[in-house]
Specification:
- The protein has 231 residues and is α/β, with parallel strands linked by helices.
- The chain is 40% helix and 17% strand.
- The chain has helices at residues 7-18, 35-47, 79-82, 99-105, 108-119, 142-147, 163-175, 193-204, 210-222, and strands at 23-28, 53-57, 84-85, 90-93, 124-131, 151-157, 180-186.
- It has a seven-stranded mixed beta sheet, with helices on both faces.
- Helix 1 packs across helix 2 (35-47) and helix 8 (193-204) packs antiparallel against helix 9.
- The longest helix is centred in the first third of the chain and has 13 residues, at 35-47.
- The protein is elongated, with a radius of gyration of 21 Å.
- 34% of the residues are buried.
Length: 231
């Protein structure tokens, strides 16, 4: 299963292509909303067209791409040893271990200069920027990273991210002068259609014979599409 080859990611890639965006940021409206996974899938989709892609993990408050922080600096020192070659076209740069690097990336001009240096090697630069609300001295403000990008994408977790978190995140990004390309809704925490049908069977279909209920339940549990397990 390659979710980055789905129709949804094709549409997203086309939007990025139409806007001629080469530097893209992914940020989440709430913690653990799946923005890092969505970010990785976009990086894989961009790399499918034989474009060199660099995915930079700047999610310092969450799990990010799941790699240990390494020593690298904005001038390129230590970068070659830190980069993880995921595929022939996709490289991942883990979060910086050195606090001086984090502080340097807080400087707008330093961040822009570093992006320009990366663009000499890579066609697409994709930032895993973490959560919009994660703002303290140890983290890089997601709005700042998004502002330095050509486009930003906000990730929302259905049935988990609150309306208040969504509106607050959008306001912060707008105040930061961010070009918000759109929002992606992560349906992982939403009940599947099969679960909803089973819930109705249990609560409102007491009149159905037990044998029929067992047959319907078995069918729903075996149907991958109704379970939300797309191939």
């Amino acid at each position: 299963m390659k979710p980055w080859l789905s129709q949804e990611y094709d549409q997203l890639f086309q939007q990025i292509h139409q806007q001629e965006a080469r530097v893209i940021s992914f940020t989440g409206a709430s913690p653990q909303c799946g923005s890092s996974t969505m970010c990785y899938w976009l990086a894989r989709r961009c790399a499918e067209d034989n474009n060199k892609v660099l995915l930079i993990d700047l999610d310092l408050s969450g799990s990010g791409q799941g790699n240990h922080a390494t020593d690298w600096e904005t001038n390129g020192s230590g970068e070659m040893g830190a980069i993880i070659h995921k595929t022939s076209q996709l490289d991942i740069l883990p979060p910086p271990k050195n606090q001086e690097t984090t502080m340097a990336l807080r400087q707008p001009q330093t961040l822009l200069n570093t992006i320009q240096r990366w663009q000499q090697t890579y066609h697409y630069i994709i930032f895993d920027a973490g959560t919009v609300s994660a703002a303290n001295w140890r983290n890089l403000p997601a709005a700042n990273i998004c502002h330095a990008s050509d486009a930003a994408i906000l990730c929302i977790a259905a049935a988990k991210t609150t309306e208040s978190e969504v509106l607050t995140s959008i306001d912060r990004l707008k105040q930061g002068g961010v070009n918000l390309l759109g929002c992606i809704v992560n349906d992982q925490h939403n009940p599947s259609l099969a679960c909803e049908i089973l819930r109705i069977l249990d609560t409102k279909a007491s009149w159905l014979p037990k044998k029929i209920k067992i047959g319907i339940t078995h069918y729903l549990n075996q149907n991958s599409m109704l379970q939300g397990k797309y191939q």
